[in-house]
Design a protein that fits this description.
56% of the residues lie in helices and 13% in strands. By secondary structure, it is of the alpha+beta class. The protein has a 5-stranded mixed sheet with strand order 2-3-1-6-7, with helices on both faces.
């Protein structure tokens, strides 16, 4: 549900509020709206509004003694009203979750400026912040039967880079890696440095297929990356493991363990690869 859908749903809710409080609302303007559940709700409400308006008009005539008035009102069947209520309740829940997600993104932007929330070298989220966020995402997905995915990454042969070019170059590799990942990731994705050359990503509302696309995008961008030193250009790669949350996962560690297993397989397969485990 995007921002436009939320606004459309707010107009539907306002129409219902007006009907319940005898404010005699006008007809909802549905011109140009796509054929979806929110439009169907609007059409049902317009039918109900027209019917109630006709009944009100007829009642006025009857009260003046005009017994010949015709009542041209077609009210929706009871089961249609129940379906309308159920659908509206479901859409409002989606809107609340959309709002919470937008607030979460905004809060993460603010938290990135907090020293405790970020890794001092790379500028990505710290291990502590990442694990706190991952735990909350796990509990949210478990409660609402949502999905999220985890990407585990190791920079290939970072020790060799340090030994060959010096730790200062190794630090530049780490910084370049973090910055490059942030460029290719989506706004809702959360990247953290877990330790050393190990990084992890939480991808909210993302199934395995989408996570693999993101992981491959990261892998390719790192393989094309160049870090310039005083002597030469340093190239490096990354090994990546991917998994997704399952409803039978009892805790966050179950998800992280599968991602670690996938990462282990990627490294054993020759590195610079993406491997997933279900």
């Amino acid at each position: 549900m995007d921002h436009n859908d939320v606004e459309r749903l707010e107009r539907v809710n306002a129409q219902i509020h007006a009907l319940l409080h005898d404010e005699q609302p006008g007809i909802l303007d549905l011109t140009g709206q796509q054929e979806d559940t929110i439009r169907q709700l609007g059409e049902s409400l317009n039918t109900l509004t027209e019917a109630l308006s006709a009944l009100t008009h007829a009642a006025h005539h009857l009260s003046t003694g005009d017994l010949d008035v015709q009542v041209l009102a077609k009210l929706p069947a009871g089961h249609h009203l129940k379906n309308l209520q159920s659908t509206l309740r479901h859409l409002n829940l989606q809107a609340e979750e959309h709002g919470a997600q937008r607030q979460g993104i905004s809060a993460r932007k603010q938290e990135r400026a907090c020293p405790d929330a970020t890794d001092s070298l790379t500028g990505v989220y710290s291990r502590r912040y990442f694990m706190d966020f991952a735990t909350k995402e796990f509990l949210r997905s478990q409660r609402y039967s949502h999905i999220f995915s985890v990407i585990q990454m190791d920079i290939d042969h970072l020790k060799k880079i340090n030994d060959t070019h010096g730790r200062a170059v190794g630090d530049e590799v780490l910084k370049a890696f973090g910055a490059n990942c942030l460029e290719v990731l989506r706004e809702s994705d959360v990247l953290g440095r877990i330790g050393g050359e190990e990084f992890s990503i939480i991808l909210p509302e993302t199934e395995m297929e989408g996570a693999l696309i993101v992981a491959e995008r990261v892998r390719r961008s790192i393989a094309d990356l160049k870090v310039y030193t005083n002597v030469q250009i340093v190239h490096f790669t990354v090994s990546i493991g991917v998994t997704s949350f399952r409803q039978d996962d009892s805790c966050l560690d179950d998800v992280l363990k599968r991602a670690d297993e996938a990462l282990y397989l990627a490294k054993n397969a020759g590195r610079n690869k993406v491997v997933s485990t279900g």
